[in-house]
From TrEMBL:
Domain Glutaminase A central, first and last residues per copy: 333-676
Pfam families in UniProt: DUF5127 (PF17168), GtaA_6_Hairpin (PF16335)
Domain Glutaminase A N-terminal: 108-326
Organism from which the protein derives: Penicillium arizonense
Family matches, as InterPro entries: Glutaminase_GtaA, GtaA_central, GtaA_N
Keywords: Signal
Name by which UniProt lists this protein: Glutaminase
PANTHER family: GLUTAMINASE A-RELATED, PUTATIVE (AFU_ORTHOLOGUE AFUA_6G09910)-RELATED
Domain of life of the native organism: Eukaryota
Residues of the signal peptide: 1-25
Amino acid sequence: MRWFNPQSALAAVYVMILSLPTSEAITYSPIKPPSYPLAVRSPYLSAWIPGNSVASLSSSRAQFWAGNDLIWSVTARVDGVAYNLFGVKVPLSGTKSGTVTEATYTSTHSTFTVQAGSRTFTLDFFSPISPKNYLRQSLPFSYLTVTVAAGDSSSVQIYSDLDHSWVGQASDVSWSYSTKTTTGVFQIQGADASTYSENSNGQALWGSAVYATRPAGGGSLSTASGPSASVRQSFISNGTLSGTHAEWTANGVVGFAHDLGTTAKEVAVTFAVGHVREESINFLGEAQTGYYRATYADTVDAVSHFLDDYSDASEESVTFDALVQSTGISSYGSNYSDILALSTRQVYGGIEITIPNESLDTGTTRAFIKEISSDGNINTVDVIFATFPIFYILSPGYLKLLLDPILQYSGSDGYTKEYAVHEIGASYPNATGHPEDGEEMPIEESGNIIILTYAYQLATGKTDLATTYASQLSQYAQYLYKNGLYPTAQLSLNDALGELANQTNLAVKAAIGLATYGALTNQANYTTAGKSFAEKIWSDHLGTDAAGTRFLIQYGITPWFLVYNHYPDLLFGLDIFPEEAYNATAAFYPTVRQKAGVPLDGAIGWGQTNWQSFVAATVTGSARELLIKDLHAYVANGLNSAPFSDRYWVQDSGQYVAGDSYSFRARPTLGSHFALAALGGANTWDY
Ligand SMILES: *[C@@H]1O[C@H](CO)[C@@H](O)[C@H](O)[C@H]1NC(C)=O
Ligand SMILES: *[C@@H]1O[C@H](CO)[C@@H](O)[C@H](O)[C@H]1NC(C)=O
Ligand SMILES: *[C@@H]1O[C@H](CO)[C@@H](O)[C@H](O)[C@H]1NC(C)=O
Ligand SMILES: *[C@@H]1O[C@H](CO)[C@@H](O)[C@H](O)[C@H]1NC(C)=O
Ligand SMILES: *[C@@H]1O[C@H](CO)[C@@H](O)[C@H](O)[C@H]1NC(C)=O
Ligand SMILES: *[C@@H]1O[C@H](CO)[C@@H](O)[C@H](O)[C@H]1NC(C)=O
Ligand SMILES: *[C@@H]1O[C@H](CO)[C@@H](O)[C@H](O)[C@H]1NC(C)=O
């Protein structure tokens, strides 16, 4: 029980008034998104802040993708007065709040400008995306650079801390501190947690959180770990920390203070935040570890290298951001580039690049993708399908890295079905095989594997995947040929619909899968087979209404369906569906648009941004304009706070209003948003 202390209660009220956000306008550019990525590099390093919390950044906490709080704070002192800039939910007395004036994002940076007394600070949260540089991409760290802009000559100190919320547990935690030359490194480790296990929010319970920095701009660095209030108080009072490193305590933090002295110049200090797991993935009983461990086996070396790499990574990010921006603009204007820039970190932050833990052999590089929030499956084939347009233009090598473990597993004795597997494990990071009672999507995944293999081959010019797994690919093509035109009752990737027979969109996948196999193997009879499926589905009205104006969800059964599986027809130039089908859907979808967009089918009130984006690429004219505009309006509507949800309500529905997101969050499937851009060509981002 706590004693009520009226004096501190009064002080708390006073502090609350001081820390209320001012009404001064904040400039959000390009838009205020549902959530800003802060440190988004892996399924377990995934820190965000809701767009609507930015106005109160000083007291708003970062959140793990699932929405649980992460303690991560920044406070700056200007001429002895402490200003909380970020994440201080309970300000200590005597501190003030910085005022946010600007918030921006690019594909790799989220940046906030905060006024604190006479000085202006920027907090630049930078998660590199370097998909062709596996070392840089695999480092499980993210940068926070705090810059004080040039100004009056004042004395400036910058403080930041974090706690055990980053390791997903609230007891049995240990802290350690080490140095490498001038770099200070805190590690926070949960004890006795079983390897490969997660808490209920999806946080890794093994491995450790890392916070590191080094002195910059001629300043000096001090450190401390201990109870949050006392560590923060010593910074507030003195501008430095005691250097004492206490044992872990429940309300404790590990903190750094940079003393920049009296300066009128611009000075920047950079922190590295991370989450490392030595054994990162269990692939069929064999531990995999991060690719970077081939070069930096030790965590302190790895994070020290990450800080060394800052200027190169930063330079690359400028080029990368410009490419996303210009690709978006040249494909469909600035609304489209706003969507692409917001999508990229979420895609690459759902993927890890690994090597075998035992051999550290970079010749056996693999990639694993987590079906974040929808069920946690690992290397779900249809999640890779949703994501593939971004790989196709930007990093086609990922298709091989992701498919290889799937094909290796499904070609082994551990998997005996004649059709392609749905995923290689129910729970990331356990890639230990498809469970007996797992989801089966026979037509869906057999078509997807063929399409993804061809996307890789077309984009890279490499035939290795198709050659190595030739017999499996042939088996899937046979399966589609035999079973694809009249699919039995089964799931498609739109599994919320349940097991339906004769699903038009599945038959379309079979048609495209067959034709793609024909292109992959130079066997015209498969192309002909795909074309004859397409003729039956569209021209003979098997999968359309009687007048041939729209696709239906099932043969002869309404409602209409937002068929998107012919997207690869256009992307690969297969010419399987007639132009008439494309024209008809372009004319039809605008007529069934609801308040906030086109739903997935005519019987439901929600839509999926992935499939809206595929369809935006298959239609032209006003239908395309509408789909992109609705997607932009959804992201910019200010109603949501979850990391980009790829499913949302397009009409008011019970407790939801049109434009509200619908349960999914932070899924790496957003590569689908690049479908339109990918029509511009494969592997075009050579930088
Ligand atoms: C992965 O497998 C291990 C060992 O069976 C288990 O302890 C752990 O909970 C599993 N992880 C998940 C996320 O289910
Ligand atoms: C400030 O520094 C002085 C001298 O090192 C120390 O005695 C004092 O405890 C510090 N104040 C706080 C609040 O840590
Ligand atoms: C992973 O590699 C480290 C370093 O060689 C080793 O200590 C550890 O036992 C390995 N883990 C497994 C599961 O092989
Ligand atoms: C699938 O459609 C065909 C053609 O309309 C029909 O003959 C068959 O009965 C349908 N299958 C199922 C399971 O409904
Ligand atoms: C295509 O031709 C090959 C070689 O003649 C044959 O093995 C295969 O079964 C044919 N496939 C189809 C779908 O007709
Ligand atoms: C499809 O639409 C385009 C553009 O309006 C038109 O030029 C073309 O003739 C149409 N094709 C068919 C088959 O209707
Ligand atoms: C961009 O999206 C907004 C909705 O966020 C919409 O109002 C505007 O018309 C769109 N601009 C274009 C050129 O489509």
